[in-house]
């Protein structure tokens, strides 16, 4: 049974979540980058498969990281190239043929190839319906059109608090080694979705990944210890963490 949802695959609670990938071993943007940052070790495993010539369009690959089953679904060969609808169909056929071996009762798909791949949703969705609607498992097809929710919303909440109090902005800049001017730029153009930060010209890839990893860890682990990106760092002073908890929603964004 298929259920279309406005949100993201990460908030469905599905047994298996699907990551769209290329065959080059690169997770540089979009949902693939988010998978890389959320699930340490996934990228290294995927990259090794690519280097060994084991990732091909038309074949899906199962991973399990931190207790979450993840499916790599190749939608293109080279990361710079657009996706092709025939690649999507071949991958869907492979999933429909093999889903039982994944031992799942539910799966969440993004719009395959519809973001960085350049395919149109109105072309891809009917194809997904064709191959997924008759499967005896719950299938979420996620449009990712809603406002931030779940962990992403919490991450934006913390970030909003950091960049709108000078003491906290200075602390974040010092701990993560991100220039204050970058954080001010984020503050002045505060995003509705976290991934939009990666599109800001003032934000480097390294700075984006540092912000994501720190804020994601803060939300998931419930700790006031800064997670170092390059090396171990001392924890944030407890007072700052306590101040952050005072801001509990994004109603005024």
From TrEMBL:
<dbReference type="InterPro" id="IPR002589">
    <property type="entry name" value="Macro_dom"/>
</dbReference>
<dbReference type="Pfam" id="PF01661">
    <property type="entry name" value="Macro"/>
</dbReference>
<protein>
    <submittedName>
        <fullName>Macro domain-containing protein</fullName>
    </submittedName>
</protein>
<feature type="domain" description="Macro">
    <location>
        <begin position="1"/>
        <end position="159"/>
    </location>
</feature>
<dbReference type="GO" id="GO:0140291">
    <property type="term" value="P:peptidyl-glutamate ADP-deribosylation"/>
</dbReference>
<dbReference type="InterPro" id="IPR050892">
    <property type="entry name" value="ADP-ribose_metab_enzymes"/>
</dbReference>
<dbReference type="InterPro" id="IPR043472">
    <property type="entry name" value="Macro_dom-like"/>
</dbReference>
């Amino acid at each position: 049974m298929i259920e279309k949802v406005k949100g993201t695959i990460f908030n469905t609670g599905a047994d298996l979540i699907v990551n769209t990938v290329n065959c080059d071993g690169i997770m540089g943007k979009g949902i693939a980058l988010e998978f890389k940052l959320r699930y340490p070790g996934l990228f290294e495993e995927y990259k090794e498969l690519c280097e060994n010539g084991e990732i091909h369009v038309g074949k899906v690959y199962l991973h399990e990281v931190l207790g979450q089953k993840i499916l790599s679904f190749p939608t293109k060969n080279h990361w710079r190239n657009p996706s092709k609808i025939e690649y999507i169909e071949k991958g869907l056929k492979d999933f429909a043929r093999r889903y039982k071996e994944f031992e799942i009762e539910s799966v969440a798909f993004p719009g395959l190839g519809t973001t960085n791949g350049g395919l149109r949703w109105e072309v891809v969705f009917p194809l997904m319906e064709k191959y997924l609607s008759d499967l005896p498992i719950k299938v979420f097809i996620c449009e990712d059109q809603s406002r931030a929710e779940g962990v992403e919303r919490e991450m934006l909440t913390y970030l909003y608090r950091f960049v709108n109090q000078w003491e906290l902005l200075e602390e974040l800049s010092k701990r993560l080694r991100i220039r204050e001017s970058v954080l001010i730029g984020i503050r002045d153009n505060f995003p509705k979705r976290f991934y939009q930060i990666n599109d800001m010209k003032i934000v480097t890839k390294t700075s984006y990944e540092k912000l994501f990893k720190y804020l994601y860890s803060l939300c998931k682990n419930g700790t006031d210890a800064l997670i170092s990106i390059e090396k171990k760092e001392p924890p944030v002073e407890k007072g700052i963490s306590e101040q952050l908890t005072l801001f509990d929603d994004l109603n005024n964004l």
